[in-house]
Amino acid sequence: MRKSFRILTGAIVLIASVLIWAWPYVTMQLSGNAHYTEQDKREYEFYTPDILKMMPRITPRYDFDFANITGPAAHVYAIRFYDTDDASKVDDYLSKKGYQKQQICHIKAACWKGIDADETITVSILNNPEVILVSVIINF
Fold first, then answer.
1. pLDDT < 70 regions, the chain
2. pTM summary value
């Protein structure tokens, strides 16, 4: 009886430990949106696509967003650079990565396309406050 109680207790502790460790990832997977910084390591690693991870940090103040859009079914990943209106370094980076600037964009921004037809990158210059918003839109 004691041996089976110890085994049961050990199994419950093990399952509880796994659930406690995995719960943040489950909630992130089911989340509709997130706002985070690079210092939020778990969210940064989970949500941020490589194209944004490697993007030059053009200002010292920046943050990230994620949105799961229903309807047209898209994920939108974004980085927001504050206190600037010069997107030339972002444009140079995207060009070096093989993206091509499009003549027409669905919003008031510069749209970039790469190899993946379901991926669009937009670079918007916003005023009040002065912000460069780079969004990676992945349709599925």
1. 1
2. 0.83
